[in-house]
Structures are given as structure tokens and as C-alpha cells.
Design goal:
Tetracycline Repressor, domain 2; mainly alpha; Arc Repressor Mutant, subunit A; homodimer
Chain lengths: 196, 196
């Protein structure tokens, strides 16, 4: 019988991040991660399909949170307002207590091109899923894709800023400012019609 | 001595696309492409580093065109106006005569996940380069990244629409409409400030 071990995934994740950060991602095995917290490799694989998953499991939850935010926005909200509503849910997902964990994770990803690629890919997929969710709310194209891509871009810029050394503003506050900047940029554009 | 063969790259590219489309990308070799137009494999590799390059060489030119468009926008233009100016140069790069070639190329890419990944990656890189170019013009952050990402998103959406079966509008006209839609979306957003 498999005994449930409270906190095992969290302990594994913490140990994995520390090993990835100090030894390098490639140089760390699942067995070593498990060993570092007194668990077996088998236990590791009960929680994660591979060592890469330790870094990306959170992204599934992020996507889910984003989509729930889209679904629960007030009926009749404009597409970018729906996205703004979703970004509020996403901000709550990254409280300041999580910042040092996220920084460590990012430092591991920044040093490995394959992990960077996967991170980028997940954000692209996120934009596609958010566009689907907006269409489900009755938003047409190209509005759905434009709003979804804008939302993911605002999130991406804000998240990187939130992780910067010395940054102390909350993610919610940074997202708010970047979102405002986007609206300001659009307000200052004069030549939309001239493009054609 | 290497003799210059007029039109060799164009002939190779045309033959490659046709072979990729009928036989599949993986199933086609550089030697077969060369053979199809009476050239040697050696000649093929004088023009392309590998068969994948036949599909992506144009993207380098696209990036160059985009950057030139950013550089030659009127001084003092707002960031999104600079991007709109660049998109005009980019449109000129895809006249209607090129549509059937681009459709064939897209059908090859759509059937191969690795090629899709590369296409996506090139667009991400393009956004980064355009943001650099905007910063060179004195645009700060996050405005530069927001404007660059918006421009690449508008291009991406418009380009896919331009390739659709039955679509007859020019790329310039589609880009103009998608760009307008983006400005309209921003104009309808009310809660920017509430996000934080």
C-alpha cells in the first residue's frame, strides 16, 4: 500500500530547485532530489513525471487560474476588461512570499535554453487558451486573440519585473502599471487607419 | 571556379516547397530538391545551410524589413505609430503575387510540429529585436516591449488571415483593420487602473 506523505511534493520541489540552482539542471537526477529529502526515486516519480515537471507544474495552475478569471469576469465586460479581471486572479497566485522561490526558479530557467524554450512555449499556449475562453464568452476575432495576447504580454513583462533584484512592488501593482501603459500607448497612436 | 547560376536559389526554393508539400518535409532530401531542378546537392548547400533554411530564409528578410521600418519612422512618432510605420514596410514585402507561395509554405509548416516551433521562435525573436530597435529610438520600458509585442501580434494575426482560403484583401488592408481593432479594444477598456 502507498502511504500518503504530507508535504512530499513541496519538499521535493524545494530540494530540486536548490540542486538545480547550485549544481545545474542537467547535472541533477531525480534520485538525487529524492535523496536530498530522505525520499526514494519512486516517490519522486509518484509526484512528477520527470525532473523538468518540478519547474513547470505551477504553470498548469497558472493557466487554470487565468481561465477561471476569464470565466468569472462580469458579463458584458469588454475583452480587455475581462483580461484585466483574469490578471487580478493571476496576481493573487503570486503573493510576495513566493517571490524568492520564483526568483530561484527563473535563475534555473535562464541558464538553460531548452527550459527557456519550454517556458516560452507554455506562454504561447496560454495565449491560445485564453483566446478560446474569450471566444466562449462571445468575443469575436481578431479581438479575442488580440486581447489574449495583450494579456499574456502584460503578464510576462510584469512577472519578469516582479522578479528583478530590488523590486518590492507587488505583482498586482506592477501588472496594473503595465496595463495602464498599454492603454496609454494605444491612446497615443494616431495612425491606425493610415496603415492600410 | 564556381560559376554563378542565375535564379538557382529561387528554383531550388520552388522545387523544395513542391516536394515538401507533396511528399512531406521529413521525406524530402536536399539531394532530391537539387535533382528536381537539374542541380547538384553541392549547389543546394551553396545557397542553403540545410533544407529547413529553404523555409526560413525569408524570415531574416522580414525581420530586416521590420527593423528598417522602425528606423525610418518619423522622429517623434509615438511607439505604436512607429510600429504601424514598420508594418507598412512589412506589408510591401508580401504582395498578392506572393500569396500562393506563402500558402504552400504555411501548409508545410502546419503539418510539422518542429517547424511550427521554429516559426513561433522566430516571431518571439522578432518581437525582442523590434523592442531593442524601439529603445534605440529612445522609447523606454515597458512601452518598447509592449509596442513591439503588439506589432508582432498584429502581424501574426493578419498574416494567417491573409493566407486563408478565399481571402482576397491585401495584407496591408488586413493589418490596418487588425491594428484598428487593437486601438478600439484599448479604447473600450475601462478598468486598467483597477487591476492593481
Amino acid at each position: 500500500m502507498v502511504r500518503w506523505q504530507p508535504g512530499a511534493p513541496e519538499r521535493l520541489q524545494k530540494a530540486a530547485l536548490e540542486l538545480f540552482a547550485t549544481r545545474g539542471f542537467e547535472q541533477t537526477t531525480a534520485a538525487e532530489i529524492a535523496q536530498a529529502v530522505g525520499l526514494t526515486e519512486r516517490t519522486f516519480f509518484r509526484h512528477f513525471s520527470d525532473k523538468r515537471e518540478v519547474l513547470f507544474q505551477g504553470q498548469e495552475l497558472l493557466a487554470q487560474t487565468f481561465l477561471e478569471g476569464v470565466a468569472t469576469a462580469p458579463p458584458g465586460a469588454s475583452p480587455l476588461d475581462v483580461v484585466a479581471h483574469a490578471l487580478r486572479s493571476v496576481s493573487a497566485f503570486f503573493p510576495d512570499e513566493r517571490r524568492s522561490h520564483s526568483r530561484l526558479r527563473q535563475s534555473v530557467i535562464d541558464r538553460n535554453p531548452a527550459l527557456q524554450e519550454r517556458e516560452r512555449h507554455k506562454l504561447t499556449t496560454l495565449a491560445t487558451t485564453v483566446a478560446d475562453a474569450l471566444r466562449t464568452r462571445g468575443v469575436g476575432e481578431p479581438a479575442a486573440t488580440l486581447a489574449a495576447e495583450s494579456g499574456v504580454t502584460v503578464f510576462g513583462i510584469s512577472f519578469i519585473q516582479w522578479l528583478r533584484e530590488g523590486e518590492e512592488r507587488s505583482l498586482a501593482s506592477i501588472i496594473g502599471e503595465v496595463f495602464d501603459e498599454l492603454l496609454k500607448l494605444a491612446g497615443n497612436a494616431t495612425v491606425g487607419r493610415e496603415v492600410r
